[in-house]
Amino acid sequence: MNKQRGRLLIIDQDLVLIGSLPDMEIGFLCQQLRFYYPQIACIASCSVRESHWEPFLRNLGVWVISKPVQIAQLELLAVQLVRYHESRTEYPSSPAPPSAQSFAGLWPGAGQVQPILQPPQPPRSPREKHLITVYGPKGGVGKTFLSRELAIFFTRQKKDGQRLKVLAVDFNLDLGTIATSLNLARRPNLYTWVQAIDEQLAELVRQEGRDPEEVAHAEWQEFSALLRLSPEEVERYVVIHPESGLHVLTSPQDIRHSFEIKDYHLYIILETLKQSEYDVILIDTAPDTTDATIQALFFAQKVVLVGNHVVDAIENIQRMLKLLREADYPEERIEVCMNRLQRKEMFTLEEIRAFFQLPPGKLLYTIPDDAEVKRSVNTGVPLMLAAGRSQAREAVASLGRVLIPSLFEESEDEVQSKTRKEKERSFWYKWFHR
Ligand SMILES: Nc1ncnc2c1ncn2[C@@H]1O[C@H](COP(=O)(O)OP(=O)(O)OP(=O)(O)O)[C@@H](O)[C@H]1O
Ligand SMILES: [Mg+2]
Fold it and tell me: Using the 8-state DSSP alphabet, how is residue 411 labeled?
């Protein structure tokens, strides 16, 4: 390494390591670099706060690593990158960048595990993926109900003629109730997966010549940054809701098991989910600010903040919004939903909007208080699958359409065929009513 300007390290004239700069978002900086110097290889080291840039950076052809950066990891990556770029120069027609597996040989446990190094890759599947976290900083406001209904709603939608593949994840690790609310068993569950992850991490540690018993928490975090699981692995740990086909990654059966789930497990799980084949992933959370919740918020493309019309729920949403704004969390990812709305409420929606300081044009979504909800929670039959009318169901469906608008946009062909059918209908209507 021969030059350092602020947090921009020019490793040599072919390779740049980009860290966080005070005045510029890492994504914009990398975009400029790739535009003006496409021949230079870029590595971006992202903090958790910058992790939302990762897909964007990878699409730009930037290599992404997570902070804290390990010097050994960097050196290995630099060697590989230089080799890779040399091979590209020698063989200009060489195909896409090497996959993560081709780097696995660099690391202990080659073949089973892959390092954190994220070579720029085209997305695994051409289908869009939607990651939605449902959160409310107060207990009992309807997060689990809403997560369940949204998840079932999405299982009933199609993209390109195919039903969506949907996963609901219970990140309320100790007291989650998604499984109960769908009459599902809690085995396998997140803890079953965590045990399997621990075995792989321990193997990795042993291959480094270390004793897993002597590894400290911070070191486990480092080792977990080297572990890459296969995205297909997720399906081993889900239970399937037979009536809808929804896959559910439930919280542990035994509350004590939730204490064994550490921040680095959650990181590996979320990273793996991000690569999985699910079209929609819905994460239900606990009313807290633990690692599980914060990681789920930063992992999501959309967050539904749920509250009720009571002053403590409203205050906590406002405090949470403030925290997220201070962390530069992109506000456009957040939708606020007031659940259990009654005919007469003490605060108007306008007052609540003003209190939350929502930007102009940003809507506040509502779900009415509906007696059917209690029945559906108690019977384990989601409103989305129940017969009969329900106002709450309609409201959840409207929210679902807002969360993934692309699913509901009509193609040009569909619009034309609809107009044609309407014309035909009006002809027969006139003919019969002459
Ligand atoms: N729109 C609604 N109308 C009527 N009752 C509702 C509505 N939404 C939720 N409820 C009731 O509120 C109760 C709590 O809902 P839920 O368990 O989804 O809350 P939660 O926010 O997930 O709670 P926790 O913070 O404990 O995880 C449910 O038992 C359900 O009966
Ligand atoms: Mg809940």
Answer: P
75 and 172 in a single domain? The answer is no
Ligand 1 atom closest to the Cα of residue 368 is 1
**CATH code where residue 313 lies:** 3.40.50.300
Nearest atom in ligand 1 to 371's CA? 4
Sign of CA dihedral 210, 211, 214, 220: positive
Cα of 244 from ligand 1 centre, angstroms:
21
Question: Quick one: 240 and 347 in the same domain?
Answer: yes
d(CA 60, CA 54): 10
pLDDT value at residue 110: 26
Which ligand 1 atom lies nearest to the CA of residue 284?
22
**CA-proximal residue: ligand 1, atom 3 (nearest):** 369
Q: Does 190 lie in the same domain as 54?
A: no
Contact 138, 320 (CB under 8 A): no
CATH of the domain at 79: 3.40.50.2300
Nearest alpha carbon, ligand 1 atom 8: 142
307 lies in some domain: yes
How many domains does the structure of the chain reveal? 2
Predicted local distance difference test score (pLDDT) of residue 366: 97
Clarify whether residues 282 and 366 are in a common domain. Answer: yes
* Helix (H/G/I), strand (E/B), else coil: 166: strand
* pLDDT at residue 113, as a whole number: 30
* 29 plus 170 within the same structural domain: no
Nearest ligand, measured from the Cα of 304: 1
Atom of ligand 1 nearest to the CA of 181: 17
Domain assignment of residue 113, yes or no: no
**Could you tell me the residue range of the domain that residue 165 belongs to?**
130-412
Ligand 1 shell residues, CB under 6 Å: 136, 139-145, 172, 177, 287, 339-340, 367, 369-370, 373-374, 377, 392
Answer whether residue 421 is part of any domain: no
Which ligand has an atom closest to residue 379 CA?
1
DSSP-derived letter for residue 18 is E
State in Å: Cα 238 to ligand 1 middle: 24
Are 249 and 185 in contact, with CB atoms under 8 Å apart?
no
The whole-number pLDDT of residue 339 equals 98
Distance from residue 140's CA to the centre of ligand 2 (Å) = 7
The 10s digit of each residue's pLDDT in 192-219 is 999 999 999 999 999 989 999 999 998 9
Q: Which two tokens stand for residue 30?
A: 């990398």
> If the chain, 434 residues long, is cut into consecutive pieces of 10 residues, what is the mean pLDDT of each piece?
50 75 80 77 80 74 78 71 54 29 25 38 63 97 98 96 96 97 96 97 92 93 87 95 98 97 95 94 96 93 96 96 92 96 92 94 95 94 94 97 90 68 61 53
Tokens 């590595």 belong to residue: 43
From first CA to last CA, the distance across the chain in angstroms is: 86
